Fold each of these.
Amino acid sequence: MRYLPLTPADRAAMLETIGARSVDDLFVDVPAAARLTAPIDGLPAHASEMAVERHMTALAAKNISAGSVPFFLGAGAYRHHVPASVDHLIQRGEFLTAYTPYQPEIAQGTLQVLFEFQTQVARLFGTDIANASMYDGSTACWEAILMAARVTRKGRAILSGGLHPHYAEVVRTMAKFTRDDIVSLSPELVAEPDDNEVIASIDDQTSCVVVQYPDVLGRIPDLAAIAEAAHAKGALLIAVVTEPVALGLIEAPGALGADIVVGEGQSLGVGLQFGGPYLGLFGCREKFVRQMPGRLCGQTVDAEGKRGFVLTLSTREQHIRREKATSNICTNSGLCALAFSVHLTLLGGEGLAQLAVVNHAKAQATFERLARIPGVRVLNTAYFNEATVVLPRDAREVVRALADRQVLGGVSLGRLFPVADGLHKGLLVAATETTTDEDIEAFATALEAVLAGGNA
Amino acid sequence: MSAPNAAGWRPSLGQAERAENTTSSGDYGLILEEGLSFELGAADKCGVDIDYADRSPIEGLARFLRSEAPALPGLTEPEVVRHYTRLSRQNYAIDLGPFPLGSCTMKHNPRLNEKMARLPGFADVHPMQPQTTVQGALEVIEQLADWLMKLTGMASVAMSPKAGAHGELCGLLCIRAALDARGETRDVVLVPESAHGTNPATAAFAGFKVETIPATPAGRVDVEALKAKLAPNVAGVMITNPNTCGLFEPDMREIADAVHAAGGYVYCDGANFNAIVGKVRPGDLGVDAMHINLHKTFSTPHGGGGPGAGPVVLSEALAPFAPLPFVTRGADGSLRLVEEENAGEGHAQAFGRMVAFHGQMGMFTRALTYILSHGADGLRQVAEDAVLNANYVLRACDDLLPAPFAASGPCMHEALFSDAGLAEGFTTLDIAKGLIDEGFHPMTVYFPLVVKGAMLVEPTETESKAGLDRFITSLRSLAERAKAGDESLHSAPHFAPRRRLDETLAARKPVLVWRGDAAAAGTPSRSEVGGR
């Protein structure tokens, strides 16, 4: 077996050193009744690299990859071009096969990357500080709500109807067990986000309001107005960014008054991968630092006075504080943070701004073309690279019919919000720099045919 | 690159060499220093050629536009490749040598797994694509789930948790949901004192109170003490098996039976499943829920701190409560995701959703590739070799370093030593930092907490005998030096990219982001920071 270096002679010599007759003697603590004496039935034996590659390649071939067809899905996961150097660098063994940097003297590579990553996230979000990553956007969102409750000592969170429904579901699931009070506003198929409803819902018991920016329908809430209303009642504003490329074009949430900004970092450096692993981003005001969840990397000096980096403020964390920790998170998304950081370093701020302009332009071209189709209208008055299109019939059927025509034409609101009324004609459509004029035309032509009933 | 050493730092060498040989660059041969990207980059640099867009933003966007680009310097591609490559050389990694971090399972990461995860059919697939277009992705989940259930002898598996601690949470929430369904309020979870910190943290996160169970002198759960705590308010126990002392819990079945008889559930922390995969099925020991760290047992790379993946196998009793989504196969043979809209089909009691999409697909493809490569016979050999390697280290060193539980018999996949018997003032930390100078990553130190000055060595099955012999030689030599009171150990490491780092300073005055000259001005001079 190609991954096991011990030879039969090695094993025999080692058993002799140990003073055991056979390897089974080493499993003596396992009760005999529970000890398996042979490989488990019904499972195949080991296979060569070539055979495994054949098996996995055949499975991969059963999927339609985004790059092989006109593709317009977003809804919290976006297809961007990742420069080749990003994937090369994250596959360097020194990054790929390192552990959490518990021994900082021989982990400065990972630690400096995390310090740079934290700085990049904080500057992108417009927050004072950021942590070294969370699992994904949805779990970062829940952790932010818990943190807001610790900071404000209040336990009522208001979720905008524009929050990604999966994020809202994660929050409601967790809150069911922690007994936090969650007020979920209903999403509606209207042009403007629910800023007024959010503001009207804030009261003295409110710990935080959670507002996605841009929201799940692609609309852009007025964070400054919401922040002002929240702060007037002693509540925090948590802004959720699922498409960080948008922040190349629209104002950073922290600059608009958001106290905590969380997000999904997948857009930069991390591929679609059917939903994971992704990258939770978490930034906030510096005064909240000791209430933050997750790992933090900090600058210090070594015994000779040279700059170096360490994991710090670990008295917040599970391995020190145990049941009193701010979070139970341990492993996070280190390698995805590296990919994000490399991609963002390649782009720089000006590059990100230009990339955002291109994304927006591709979306403009897409929505202008779709709006010319009879019965189709674009809902949003404002959008970045994603907006909601209202169709003359249930968008779920339309998405399936488009897929039959080899077009991946967006995410239906019926699938995203299975229990909400009045959304089923909504289709969420995203374009990025990877979208071509030919893709847009193929999408529009297929949509015209599907809506004309020509679903052959 | 522009002035990487502007701050005036120098790499670490032996003190004599440093005094006599300095370089004008600050680099020493292949020991390379590297500045921060913020110090190297410039606002007008970019490593990506981006299309020109000849449109202005739509009118509705005007009031949201930012006035200037984010303050992030860019670098061109050659500079980026060099920056990160130079940084990478300051890291130790499993590719460079043994990485015997106990309970972390740093084993070789096969590169076939990386190659398979990057097939466009896996890497470039959106989680919300129509399900007819992702049948292969769903089949990966189905096949991996089938392996995990058969290897553990469990009825079901929740695939979506993102890491071990997230899996613990999933398992405890299943227990909460099952108790709720029974109409019972039980708010206490029993956790052994040797447990990993995530166990009590997770229990608290899930809304339980934690009560600690003591260990026996042989390093196992004190079964009688545990039984004495069983009461109508006990929701269950969280037990790590093999445990954090690297020992199998021989009374697991008796514990499970007692907990079940008292109306509770058994959560098993599966962080150490790699020691028993193919040798024992946790389902045969009465376990109700166990997470499996795919990044440990099934070798998906740790990546400097994740991503991990923590699927949770479940007993019949807890299976109905597992979170969405689920993959099922329909009567027509096609695979489907059970999500919120169709949860009524067999998952009506699902406790909710833990992640935005379907879990760590990229880790699933790697883990399945690893599992298929080894097969049922190879995975059994994995456990045997992991245990053999650990016992070899244990017996090769236990004459010099006290092994607190060695008298009770063999260990599993980890050899545990303590620093008792070192010269006055010498501790585990000195041995660990000495190992760095010897070219090894240290073992896990000061964990588990039940052993003073614990050193937990997990060689894993992918270490050769020759590699272990080299490690053993170094560990023995360090133990002898520490027993003899060799003062030079106190200042180790001497040959790493950095000497011991001032963690107190980092925590007292946190500098978590780069703030340019302001941060540099706050850096203490060398005279203010002594060695330990």
Note: Residues 152-367 of chain B form a domain with the Aspartate Aminotransferase; domain 2 fold (CATH 3.40.640.10).
Amino acid sequence: MVPAKKKSRMFKKMVAGKIEDGERPSKTAIYINGRLIGFHDDGDSLVAELRAKRRAGEISPEVNFALNRATGELQVSTDSGRARRPYIVVENGKSLYTPEMVKKVESGELKWNELIKMGVIEYLDAEEENDIAFVAADEKHITEKSTHMEIDPVSICGVTVSQLTYPEHNSSPRITMACAMSKQSLGFYASNYNLRMDSRAHILYYPQEPLVQSEPYRHMNFHRRPAGQNFVVAITSYYGYNMGDAVVMNKNAVDRGLGRSVFFKVHESEERRYPGGQKDKFESPNPTVSGYREEYMYRYLGDDGIVVPESEVQSKDVLVGKTSPPRFLEEVSAFGLTEEKKRENSLVIKSGDEGVVDSVMLTESPSGNKFVKVRVRSIKVPENGDKFASRHGQKGVIGLLVPQEDMPFTESGIVPDLIINPHAIPSRMTAGHLIEMLGGKAACFTGERVNGTAFSGQDAEEFKQTLKEQGFESYGKEILYDGLSGERIESEVFVGVIYYQRLHHLVSNKMHVRSRGPVQLLTHQPTEGKAREGGLRFGEMERDCLIGYGASMLVRERMLEESDKTVELVCNKCGMIAVHDFIKRRDYCPLCDSVELYKVEMSYAFKLLLDEIKAIGILPRLKLKDKA
Amino acid sequence: MATHKATRAQIDSGEAVGIVAAQSIGEPGTQMTMRTFHYAGVAEQVPTGLPRLIELLDARKEPKKPIMDVYVDEKYEETEEKCRQIAAQIQAVMLEDIGKIEERLGTREIMVILDPAVLKERKLDIDDIKAALKKFSGGEVHASGNEVKISFKGSTLRAIRRVTNKIRSVHMAGVKGISRAAVLKNGNKHFIRTAGSNIAEIAKIPGVDFKRSYTNNIMEVNRVLGIEAARNAIILEIMQVLESQRMDVDVRHVALLADAMTMDGLIRSVGRHGLSGRKAGVLARAAFEETLKHLINAAVTGEEDKLIGITENIIIGQTIPVGTGIVKLARRI
């Protein structure tokens, strides 16, 4: 190493001369945590030496070295915030983690930290990986070039993938989907859920730990907070009710609690303060208050103006009665007293949020106001349109709930909980789904969990053997009998047990209808979105279809009558839209003062368009003519 | 019976043919792949699929890769010879193809060393070259043997370099714009496919069957053969693209599109600068694109919207004049 004093001079020299010539630097620049500290003649031997020392325990295992041969830079990193992961060190084509060590580790004689001290396991950061690491997935794949080995091949997967079973048998897009969906599954997310006030929460009834699970799944203790249930699944069609990723479910199984969950939703209200010392008040509003709702909507309110727990609240029922001061300051009345005119501002249940009031929490908001949280609970029994998915990216919505007696049954009287369509399998290439079904079925007989860890899970041959021993067809196929006719179904059907997740896309939370309802202030057209009780947009392409069909009257009905129809008075002389003088109670043309006005039916959007055209400085005129 | 069937097959008055055509082409079009097929030879890199369709509808001045299929008279078709001969004849020859061009900056000369074999093959004379060079170079031209010398007096070196670059691409023989011509075989009939298109010149070459010869350059068809031919060319080209993508679209939809594109005697693109930008109603144009531009122009010229089109009537909220809405009372009682 170059003494520190000399370094800056040398650095200047190199910048000024050598490096700019484009030659490869003859010396290696050494950086510690990105800061240049000196130069060395032989970078390669330096890194080798440093690494040897780290493995020998002379240098902290938390230091990483990365030599960039192209730029002649050695990066030594000791700082925090680097992502590092452990590997088993391989030297001369041999793993340093010997079978003897394995025994010692199993018996507890040898600990993780000791293995690191011994230089058997080392942590690499991203930079050092790029420099030297040539990592074998497992012992079989070690070559002469290998420098490291994975502790387990699953560790090439992240948290989400590694909790899946048999992902190596699935196509990659399905793995991605399986990961995305497992995050939407309902389960037992926290054991203190009853004390929590999450704005939305789902709790699955009878969560089960999967029969087929991966090792990381257990390491993460996921089995103690499971998010799914083991379903008996048959892969066959059912009178067309499971076409196109729909699934058919056993009604009786659902009634017994399969896939059932509770949904908690928390509603909040605050006694706000306003400038001028006024504030809101929680109370059951007096009928004289402006904007008073119908009386029955307040029926569950207690004396404090807040709902009583365990009341069954319907849509539009009031959860928290609240009155607010008027929006504008009142004039002083004749008697010199300001009459209290309050405004109704209650917290109301919206459509789709019906349920039972679970608990009420009274507290203080950050700004010191009275603050109330009301948790409403509703039981969500699986119904048509609810979404389910396995851990293989195989998702589907319920197409039909079938009474058990109408479902197909096996020779031994087993009735599937779920029937999925065989077309879901070949094009998606989710062989893992089938293997898990087979493994789950075998697990039912052995009474033991099946290991479905990526790359090292139990082989399907084992399951076949188990099934054979139990007198089943070894590929999992069964003879089914039609539940309706009792006749034997000609072909054999694959039946197995597989872990299914209920996903939080529930019809009951999304369902929405509108016949008449609110309109927007600006355009007089119906509002948009479920929250605003809106309509569904009849868009351009939909309109084109009606035009293409020649249905003129229907187009007019959709675009005008059912939308923003208005009648405006138009001046026959100048083509302007007339105005109404409320004081004189008369209509007149604002441009020419004429009263020769005619009623014209038009869309409000058009009237608005005319106004906007006027706003850009163009005067549009309407020429009136009698309709032929 | 036949007349009855024919009458029944006619489109009813008030049918929204335009929208039906647009939807019929548009719907399968969404599934059209960006994939282009690869052929060997000249035909390669001619855009097919979506890029070509866009090119056609945009009515570009020049297609990305103009090509021609030139047929020879039927009696020569069976043998390759005549085709080869014509192919050689129409392929444009530039100076750099027939000889080496050397700059001698020291003596301020450009030497063109000609290849006599190529010269013979192309039926060119040294005098032709001399003449051409005289015209383009602006220097003094001397010829001796297979060499042509151009000498400059007082020109800057930069000017000489400019001349060198210019004379490289001096057109010597063949048809202008045809960069390559290859003889292809269809069954036992031969024809010539060219890269580059110049149908007017091809017509003048003896032995060429002009009636069957084909170009994919719509604009050129319009220039040489007129708008009716261009209309047919558009239909043919669009159908070719659609069929190559296995899109089963009825010709009549495409024919309507081509009619719309050519109805005012010029080829109009589909879009802001063409069809949609020239609609009769102000409101319809303003509703499409560049709203303000159309409104302001209408205000300046005092335009009146007669409310003839569909869009206008939807905007103001009237029954649209199409389908059931086209029927009017003949007389009020």
Note: The interface with chain A takes residues 14-16, 19-20, 22-23, 292, 295-296, 298-299, 304, 310, 314-326, 328-329, 332 of chain B (CB under 8 Å).
